[in-house]
Design brief:
The chain has about 375 residues and is an alpha/beta fold. It has 13 helices and twelve strands. The protein is about 40% helix and about 25% strand.
Length: about 375
């Protein structure tokens, strides 16, 4: 009975907003999240970002990255995705649906009623919607946020599942601090097929254990830094009075955009802002909006965004993620928004467009970091 969904391929942070709305409407202060298949990345990101509202996390037959990589061999290559999208376009209907049914639910292959139900589900969405969803899943990559999950986590995989490989689940569990991995017998992909009891038993036993207290002082967040380009020269040219008025106008503009994109102002040092967001796409769009808005004042700003684990210290934030965000912003040019690869990966499907800005050494931060320049955004 839900309204039709116009854009099915929503980015993860938009879907997190939906999840928060459901919890709010249900009056739920905290919930156990059960994420299976493409729901796994959403639940994992929500648990890392909102540990206070997540009692526990159960990940069943899911993934951390949708595209093959040398260090993630379980996902489809770009060519495998292209081949499947071609089959989907050419053979949408019983033939395509049956192929997936036989691979995903082998124990029910001879069940005519189950097969007919599966076909009906497959035909309830258009080819365009299914293609958009597959492309979004292929672009998903949450590997970098898995170590930031601080709630009790259970990972379940069936031994002979042909879609979600056992070793992929074992690897995923190893990335989450103190996660429990349970290997279940069976070959069916959905939890409602095959031995359903083993899924229920494993989950119930896990949730029956009193969870350790959540660390409320550490959460996953996106930090955004901005500062005015050439502020010293402008202040010298205008004089104290006029510069003070211009700076006040700039601060009003920045705060207006931060409020519009639901950011939290942490600090204002001189002509710069530090703001945190619970969604990376909002952080990037806020930075873009500030760049555009201050142009009317005759000013240019630079901005940088990074998603990582931060430590809350009263009204302040600390941690390596904050330092990385500051260093990224320092690398940006006039009217430029730079983001880390983590941000770029997490906003897949948002409509934001990026250009590779190369690898950089960030002062005081280990390793080299690949940065991306925001060059466009659909609908802006």
């Amino acid at each position: 009975m839900s309204d039709p969904i116009v854009d099915v391929a929503q980015p993860l942070d938009s879907r997190m907003d939906d999840l928060t709305s459901v919890l709010d409407s249900a009056g739920s202060k905290e919930a156990v999240l059960f994420g299976c298949f493409e729901g796994g990345p959403l639940c994992a990101l929500y648990a890392a970002t909102h540990p206070g509202r997540t009692k526990a996390l159960v990940l069943y037959a899911t993934y951390a990255r949708g595209a093959w990589a040398p260090d993630y061999p379980w996902a489809w290559t770009d060519q495998e995705l292209a081949d499947d999208l071609e089959r989907l376009e050419e053979r949408l209907g019983a033939d395509y649906s049956d192929r997936w049914f036989e691979e995903a639910v082998p124990s029910l292959t001879s069940d005519a009623r189950a097969r007919a139900w599966w076909r009906k589900q497959a035909q309830s969405s258009s080819p365009g919607a299914q293609i958009a969803l597959e492309q979004l899943e292929h672009a998903t990559d949450i590997r970098s946020i898995l170590p930031s999950i601080r709630v009790p986590t259970l990972v379940l995989n069936r031994t002979d599942d042909r879609i979600a490989e056992l070793e992929e689940g074992r690897w995923l569990a190893a990335q989450v601090p103190d996660a429990t991995f349970i290997e279940l017998a069976g070959e069916d992909h959905p939890p409602w097929a095959g031995d359903q009891g083993s899924v229920l038993t494993a989950t119930s036993r896990f949730l029956g254990v009193r969870p350790p207290p959540v660390e409320p002082d550490r959460v996953l967040a996106t930090v955004m830094f901005t500062d005015i380009v050439g502020s010293t020269e402008t202040a010298s040219r205008l004089g104290d009075k006029d510069w003070g008025e211009l700076l006040h106008a700039h601060n009003d503009v920045v705060r207006r955009e931060v409020d519009a994109f639901r950011g939290r102002e942490i600090d204002t040092a001189g002509d710069g802002f530090l703001v945190t967001f619970d969604g990376p796409a909002r952080a990037v769009r806020c930075a873009q909006a500030i760049v555009s808005s201050v142009d009317a004042l005759g000013l240019e700003i630079r901005a940088g965004c990074h998603t990582g684990e931060i430590q809350l210290a009263g009204d302040d934030v600390m941690g390596i993620a904050v330092h990385i965000g500051a260093r990224i912003a320092a690398r940006a040019g006039p009217s430029e928004v730079l983001v880390s690869q983590t941000v770029r990966d997490l906003v897949a499907g948002s409509g934001l467009v990026f250009e590779d800005a190369g690898e950089h050494a960030l002062k005081g931060v280990p390793d080299r970091w690949r940065l991306f320049r925001v060059v466009d955004s659909a609908g802006t």
